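We emphasize that the prediction below concerns an isolated chain of 263 residues; any contacts that depend on oligomerization or on bound cofactors are therefore not represented. The input was used exactly as deposited, without trimming of termini.
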Amino acid sequence: MLNKLLKYDLKYMIKNMSVFYILAIFFSITTRLLFSLNQSVIINIISQISVGCMFAMVVNILINTMMRSWVRFRDSIYKDEAYLTHTLPVTKNDIYNSKFIQTLIFFILGFIVIIFCLFIAYYTRERWLLLKKFINSITTGLNFNTTLFVVSVIGVIFLEIFNAIQCGFLGTILGHKRNNNKIGFSVLFGVISYLLSQSIVLLLVFIVGLFDSSIMDLFKNNILLDTNSFKLLIILAIVLYLIVIALMSVICKKEFNKGVNIE
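Result of the prediction step, given as a token string:
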């Protein structure tokens, strides 16, 4: 039954997100084409408009993935659609898991589309070599594998934003336990959940710093990390965010299973 729930959630997201994917790719193509033309005043103006539209769509992909995930979560669990959702022969854990997986899929898809659009708009061999040179200048000094460095940084950013989305889920669950001003309380609890999760990550890093002086130096001094400390910090960030996301999921399910007040 989880597969059927997920199918409907994915259809909802495809319907609402596909327009942003299409427009982002379209404007990345027009940007590429316009940049290849002789740059007269008019062409340059149109090129900059195309670039602006492309980046607007890129930003919208991230923002709307978050917003639509929250809207889908609220509407299917607490609005009119909830009357059907809660009559299905599924557990509340399945309902939550469907929303969690749907968000994860489209968040990954959004990252892929964004990278693809930037590749279409800006890729040339010279720019690629320049980018590699720039990244290599960072990783060489850190004695860090270039591919691993890029994947790690993107991974940390991905997990941090995904954590924020799930904090929104918890905020929605807690906010809709209130008798009035449910949206306002949902936002408030979501922000509090996010701040607490970030504080937990920072606290755990501090605890590790008690056993590693180079990590503790981050809290004491304004210095650059050495190679080993940087690697440790990246690994810590990824592991801690995974732990926080897992714990947040458990808390969300626990609160969700306590009951739902449908509007």
